[in-house]
Each structure stands twice: as C-alpha cells, then as structure tokens.
Design brief:
With 285 residues, this protein is of the alpha+beta class. The protein has two domains: 51 residues; 204 residues, Glucose Permease (Domain IIA). The protein has four helices and 13 strands. Helix 1 packs antiparallel against helix 2. This is Peptidoglycan DD-metalloendopeptidase family protein. It holds the Pfam family Peptidase_M23.
Length: 285
C-alpha cells in the first residue's frame, strides 16, 4: 500500500514539476528523478505482489455473479495475469459482457469497430443488468457515486481510453475500477465487482447477503470501454494491496475469452402475504 501511494505521489509531483517548469523554468534533472522514483516504486510493488501471490491455490467455486446470456473477455482461462498485470489484485480477474437483453427481445451487443466512436450505454444489453452475490457474504465496501460515461468500444476511442486510464491510475485504484463493491466471503477471501452503474447499489457496508441476491447493476464507470462486469477474487480487502485468487463459477467453470455462456436466473423467493404467518388477533376472521 505504501509503495502504491508513493508511486502515485511521485507522478503527481512530476506533473506539478512540469507545470512549474513551464512557468518558472526548473532543472530537468528534478523531473527525471521523480519519474525514476515513480517507476521504481511501481516496480517494487509489482515484485512484492508477485512474491506474495499464492502458488498452486485451489480455485474456489462460487456462484456466477450474472444471469442470462453473456460472454467472457480477458479471462484467466487464457492467461495469468488475465489483464496483463497483477496490479490491483487482478491476476485472475475476468470481464464479462451481456450478449442479449434479459428478455432476448432487444438488440444484441454492438461490435467493436471504427464507427460510431462512442455509443450510448443503453445500446448495450449489459447496462443495468442485475449483479448477484456469488456466496453468502458480508458487504465490506460499496461505492456507486461515479457517473457512467459513454462507451469507448471503437478504435478511435482506444486512445482516449488509454490516456484517461493512465490519469485514473495516478489518482488511485478507486478511479480505475469505478463504482465497486467488495464482499467478504470469509476465510481471507474477498470478491470485487467493478464498473457498477451509478446509484444502483441495493446493499450497504456491514450488511449480510445471500448467494444469488441482487447487489447492484452493471454499469460503465472507471477505466471501462463498454458496460461490463469486472469480477475477481482476492486475498485482501483492498485492491491496492491484494493478490488475485483463482475461482470457478458453479455450472459454468471459467469461460475463455470470446466464449458464450448462459446462466439461469436465480429462483425467485416466494412472496409471503403481509398478514400470513402472523398470529390472528381476537375477533379476526
């Protein structure tokens, strides 16, 4: 955690140094030293994460966090680390996108291409899809105040995605993962749901949840190209200090990138009439 904070501080100091240099003129050496300190801190943090990452850990089987027709991107079934880096505990993370709306009546997910440069979030079936608890757990962290930005699933928009992602990385993990939720599954295992829709949380920190319970809605916040869910298990509660853990989804396994999978909707709980089960008072029919 300290190395991550030091790295961000050095990058912010470097940006301030560049601005001061433009205004007053400063020795170039100072800027290079700040760059070296920032890169050194990030490298040291990465090496520590690699050292601490559990070896040959048995994948934990949990319930799928979504229902309906989805497909996987950036899957640990193809490579580890799945997103190219171990930072933020995402060595075994997976991204999933909805292919069809829940009722299968609306349009399919738009494909990546050249045009349009951006799209409305409503054009993507994943946007607003329910996200479900993967196990009985306790809500540890819940944030949903960041706005949902437009999609960036086009070649021209990739440049902006990379640039904005670099800025978010300097600010901190919370800006990279956007609106997010962390569940404490017990036994030193934590589940992270990232890129949630703004103001969609149905739970709060400290609350107990059941497997299959709706927690929030899928969104497009943080460093995200389109509405999707980024899911991972980790060994610590905050992604800045966490190592990723392998997992399997019951009935699904670990889908590879591009692999489509379908998850039945969880069975609805019976609705109990307001008066049913209460002792009937004297004189009631």
């Amino acid at each position: 955690m300290a190395l991550a904070v030091l790295g961000r501080t050095c990058w912010i100091a470097f940006l301030a140094y560049v601005l001061a240099d433009l205004l007053a003129g400063l020795p170039a050496l100072g800027g290079w030293l700040l760059i070296a300190a920032a890169l050194g801190s990030q490298l040291a943090a990465a090496l520590l994460l690699r050292r601490d990452e559990p070896r040959d850990a048995t994948p934990l089987t949990v319930a799928p966090p979504v229902a309906g027709s989805w497909s996987a991107l950036n899957s640990p079934a193809d490579r580890v680390p799945s997103h190219g880096i171990r930072k933020y505990g995402q060595s075994h993370a997976i991204d999933v996108v909805a292919e069809r709306p829940e009722d299968a009546a609306g349009p399919a997910r738009p494909r990546f291409g050249w045009w349009p440069v951006t799209r409305r979030n409503a054009d993507f079936p994943a946007f607003g899809a329910p996200l479900l608890a993967v196990a009985d757990a306790t809500v540890l962290t819940a944030h949903d105040g960041q706005r949902d930005h437009r999609s960036r699933n086009s070649w021209p928009a990739l440049l902006w995605l990379f640039l904005s992602g670099a800025v978010r990385d300097v600010v901190g993990a919370d800006r990279v993962i956007g609106n997010h939720l962390v569940l404490d599954l017990g036994g030193g295992t934590y589940a992270l749901y990232a890129h949630l829709r703004r103001e969609s949380l149905t739970v709060r920190p400290g609350e107990r949840v059941r497997a299959g319970q709706e927690l929030a809605r899928c969104g497009n916040t943080g460093n995200s190209s389109e509405p999707h869910l980024h899911f991972q298990l980790m060994d610590r509660p905050h992604p800045d200090t966490a190592c990723g853990l392998p997992f399997r989804w019951a009935g699904v396994g670990v889908p590879r990138a591009g692999e489509h999978f379908t998850v039945p909707a969880p069975a609805a709980e019976p609705v109990i009439p307001h008066d049913e089960g209460r002792p009937r008072g004297k004189g009631r029919p």
